[in-house]
Amino acid sequence: MATTLPIFIMVALAILFGVLVMVITTIIGPKKPTPEKLAPYECGMQEIAAPKRRFPVKYLLTGMLFIVFDIEIVSFYPLAILMRQLKVFGLIELLVFLLILMVGYIYVWRKGAFTWE
Amino acid sequence: MLLADDAVTQLIHGIISWQFLQFVVTFLVIFVFVLTGAVILVLAERKIMAWMQDRLGPIYTGPWGLLQTVADMIKLLLKEDIRVADSDKLLFLLSPSVFIAPVIAAFAVLPFSPYISLPGTGLATGIVYYVAMSSIDVVAVVMAGYSSNNKYSLIGGLRAAAQMISYELPLVLALVGVVMLTSVLAGAPGYPGHDSIGTISLRQIIDFQGVWHKTGNPVLDFIFEGNTPWEWFILIQPLMLVIYYICGLAETNRAPFDLPEAESELVAGYVTEYSGVRWAMFYLGEYGNMTIVSAIATILFLGGWSGPGVAYLTGLNVPVWGLVGNLLALVYFIVKVYLLCAVFIWVRATLPRLRSDQLMRFAWLILIPITLGNILLTGALFLLISGLGLPTWVFLTVTGVINWAALFGFIWVVGRATVATTRRAQAPAIRARLRASTTPALPLRDGIPARVPELP
Q1: Does an H or E element contain B264, and which?
Q2: If you measure CA to CA, which chain A residue comes closest to B96?
Q3: CB neighbourhood size of B27 (10 A)
Q4: Closest CA to B396 of B176, B127, B182
Q5: Mapping DSSP to helix (H, G, I), strand (E, B) and coil, where does residue B445 land?
Q6: Which chain A residues contact residue B122 at CB under 8 A?
């Protein structure tokens, strides 16, 4: 516990810095809000439609793909660290793992998840 | 009473211990590095871009315009903090903090010199810690885009999120190659490590790139101890450095991957509605990210703080020379980091922005298969060469040669792919112009004119 303490202190200080700057910015600086100033930026035009609208499902799909692939990729690290010890078993393990990954990858690719527009 | 006394003595011992001093020194170096780094980089970017575009850049504030960013910072501090109407207040106010905090926290694992790095074994998880911290930024970007009540912010935030998570995968995979190399080299004669276990600690990866047997010749020892450029991982896995660097460009939303803040279509992307210090936090975070990407690339591929004299001077066990050696290491490290940052700026001045379909296809269809292939190749080569009973240097040479060949192949493939997609995208427009013009038709290749007709 004591050996990981410096990192925790560092993270705490970083968060503190973020919060502190935000507090300072609310204290200093002028405050003269007008309705025009607070309106969302629209290149000087009147806003036609509210911005909270539906957006392409592609973004959600990319996010879901990322979660799947990211979890699988993190499991490469233990394998990479122990490569010298595992020898042939490690390589076979890697091949099997990649094969399973590739099945999903090619399926997603053929379904057109990587094609935008 | 006795217990309290004990706790107080322990606390005092903890405070005046050498480890605490090391922590304070490292902490100060990190904070000064983050804060001045952004100021220096903004100025350097403006000056270098100006030089490349044959302009002068900032010249009026201070000598040669050196104080320009300081003036900008003071201006930003005194600006009004505008909270846009109908925004999601909590998310809107928090997102700059969420953006800046992980950037500063990620600096914690960087070893600046043999002495200037956080004490303790928390550093043992270096690469994974860095990856975890760098992925928190995505949350802040989505928060900013979603809460701003602005179309440009929303689209910019979504684009940024999609881009950052897509490029995170090849970034992590490119680093696996280095970890595999350390595993293969661990325990081999001349290399650190024991029990044939690799490492993800940044500190130890630097040690893996400096193998020099003491010869007794003071001049040679002074130059090469802990500093053997022919063992740097850039020579063994140059393709991984290039891919890591490309992903770093995309992660920090820098040109040519600056679609989220494409000023010609999205105003400023997810920072459109921010002003004053909150806006400055986003930019501080961006430049901090840039520094971190360069620093990690330096440590993993360019030998970190190694340079002539560092290991020799710190190995003498004389406090004064140890101090000089550490300062020397800090200088080497910072010079390497800023050289890589200069490449960021150079790339920005050189390359045009990508289209979003090219962007996604490049990450998923080119970078991920290449990095996966590299992992497989490194493993297979290691087994093959150790199976034949050949020494480690044969493995390093073969891997290096194959990787350099793959690098040039990669550049060729990307060049071809860019030209092909561009031709396909421009074909309808060219055909329409051909039909409209009265000039005689040019010879066609695959239905596309081989040469674009000149305008009258």
Answers
A1: helix B263-266
A2: A18
A3: 18
A4: B182
A5: strand
A6: 3-8
Is residue B9 domain-resident? no
**Structural domain contains residue B400:** no
Q: Which of A4, A88, A114 sits opposite B360 (nearest CB)?
A: A114
Using a CB-CB cut-off of 8 Å, the residues of chain A touching B183 are: 80-84
Q: Is residue B101 part of a domain?
A: yes
- Domain containing B237: what range? 17-351
B354 Cβ contact list (under 8 Å, min separation 6): B256, B257, B259, B362
- Residue B1 reports pLDDT greater than 50: no
Instruction: Give yes or no for residue B3 having a pLDDT over 60.
Output: no
Between B124 and B172, where is the model more confident?
B172
Q: Which domain holds residue A51?
A: 2-110
Which of helix, strand or coil describes residue A24?
helix
Is residue B219 in a domain?
Answer: yes
Residue located via tokens 């410096």 = A6
Quick check: bond before B256 cis, omega within 30? yes
In a domain, A116, yes or no: no
ipTM of this predicted complex?
Answer: 0.85
| pLDDT tens figures, B228-268 | 777 788 888 888 899 999 999 888 888 788 877 766 777 77
Is A116 in contact with B360 (Cβ distance < 8 A)? yes
Counting one residue from A and one from B, how many pairs have CB atoms under 8 Å apart? 221
Supply the CATH number for residue A37's domain: 1.20.58.1610
Across the interface, whether the CB atoms of B108 and A6 are under 8 A apart is answered: yes
Per the structure, how many domains does chain A have?
1
Contact A29 B81 (CB under 8 A): yes
Q: Is the pTM of this model over 0.95?
A: no
Residue pLDDT, tens place only, B392-401: 788 888 888 8
